[in-house]
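[Meeting: bench + compute handoff]

Bench side (C.D.) handed over the final construct sequence. Compute side (W.E.) agreed to return the predicted structure before the next meeting so the bench team could plan truncations. Sequence as handed over:
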Amino acid sequence: MEVKRDILWRVYLSYLLVIVACIFVFGKAIYIQQVQGPMWRSMSDSLHQHIDSIEAERGTIFSEDGQMLSTSIPQFDLFIDFRVEYLHEKSGVHFRNNVDSLSFYLSNLFKDQSTDSYKRMLQQAYRDNEAYFELHKKTTYREYEQLRNFPLFKDGRYKSGLIVNERNIRLNPYGILAFRTVGLDRENSKVGLEKTYDSILKGREGKQWVRTIAGGVKVPITDEYIIEPETGKDIVSTIDVFIQEITEKALMKMMEKNDADHGCAIVMETKSGKIKAIANLGRKQNGGYWEDFNYAISPTEPGSTFKLATLMALLEDKKVTLNDMVDLEGGTWKVAGQTVYDSEQSGHRGVTVKQAFELSSNVGMAKLATNAYTNHPAQFINNLIRMRMDTATGIDLVGEGKPTIFKPGHRMWGPTTLPWMAFGYNLQVSPLQTLALYNAVANQGKMMRPYLISSIREEGVLLKNIEPVVVSDKLCSDQTLKMLQSCLEGVCIEGTAKELFKNNLFPVAGKTGTALVANGNKGYADKIYQSSFAGYFPADNPQYTCIVVIKNKPHAPVFYGAAVAGPVFKEIAERLYSTYVKGKNGGSLKATKIDSSLVQYSGYKKDITRVMQALKMQMADSSNNASWTKVYGDQKTLVASSKLIEDNIMPELKGMGLKDAVYICENMGLKLNVRGKGKVGLQSIIAGQAIVRGQVLDLELN
């Protein structure tokens, strides 16, 4: 019995000891996980070292006139390592002596917390000996430059514990201007030129040893690279900021006035095919407009602007002459059980082919095409193929939509397909394709490929120049071409655009378009019209070709092409004509590019006045007593106005000689990097931005 009791006592004691041990282990696990967890995780992160890819600085997209359309700017995430030994020497006297002033400066810089809040936060992190205390994220370069000179931080990384994680973000300085075409550069979301030329813009990645800290932040272990990143190359677009702004504003004004759904406008340089402006505006939920989609390269039913292709086919195949008569049936005509309606019921019956085109008669064009091609519809389609209406333009921009042209034998081909195609239905082409066709007529039959990039550069050095590409030397005969040009001019003199261009200062050639479009599954019941105008100017020596397409709201009271799209075209044409085309002697033409006779200089007023007097050039001086002035105009009409130079605000240096630019910048405490020769063409800090002494400014001379 005694033996049994002795054995049981030992068993119970062992069992109790096991239970106590289990409780101790379980308690220790909870303590490590809950209490010491952050410390161990931080230590684990700090030991996690690996080679990481370092993103290269992305190249800049410039306009053809030297403005930045898209560029990269640095942004900084700031951390403090309070484990730095120097901060704890002599009982932390260095930290205690600087924490008050540092808190004051941080509060004034970021304006997100009070001085006392910053002080309490820094002191608590110091007491906790935090390894990677998050100070501020998304810090701008200007803020970072100021912060580097703050108490404690000015002693450097190894005495202050300041850790800086730099990254680049993409900035579009002109905001909405050509935004969808210039594009976005977001992770897994690139569009426009940013996507098309991504391989050129992104440069070459570098390699560096980094340590991953809490929150997944990567901190470089050393300042040296295993492989140094290579900055991306710059691309110079064909976009002209001045023309783009004119186009954008004219389109926006009409969109707001007519409460339209979306629209686009494109301006092309006739001789080269350069796209000088491309505006795309869509309605936002709040009622405003934004560049939300590239409508310019998206196929839709074009409507009456397509009648130019129909007339070109008829004239080239010698099916009709411009003086042949066609009965418009008063504006309605039945074919294959369906009725063709003219948009404007003019009541005309017997008119010439030229008049039918000028009046934009759907009945006239449908009857002419049906009579000419019913037995041989493939002949009509072959004409469209020759005009390249069945293929995309090939513009250097990803996302261009593919046109839809049905052919005989296709399941969608029926007895009404041909007559409806004649006036721009039962097919889909993009506004850019229509523009290319009109440009070919303006360019004496030579069709150019539209393009958006004129050159590729590296640190200002030209690497590749993009030349214009001819896709068709002769779209039609000279005889046909002259008749088409006569008809397009007739639209603006005697046709649907007669009132729009009445008493115009220069001749215009173009075509109006008004197309009824479907509203999804609702069909055509909502009476949604697409208004368009395509043409070129001046008609006697074309310099620019332009198209405007606007999709109106349901049941819009004003929807005709001449009343909606036409005024946008006219405003663009008038501004460009007066700025780039109109000469000083009797309205004679000059080159569309600004040459050296157009002056834009900036500099010290006394120097400019001395030069003007020596050259015996007259100058209207409105600069009063200003020390700095800018001169603009041509050699016959020069105007001088004051140029404001403010402390701590970046001035506009464009047009200034290097001597004056260096004098101004060095007095402001800026450090200069200069490339090239001549006057200042580009500056890395945008005019109007706040600056600090010691900031680096890159100047590119033209």
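W.E. noted at the follow-up: The chain has four domains: 2-35, 51-235, 241-581, 599-701. C.D. will use this when planning the next construct.
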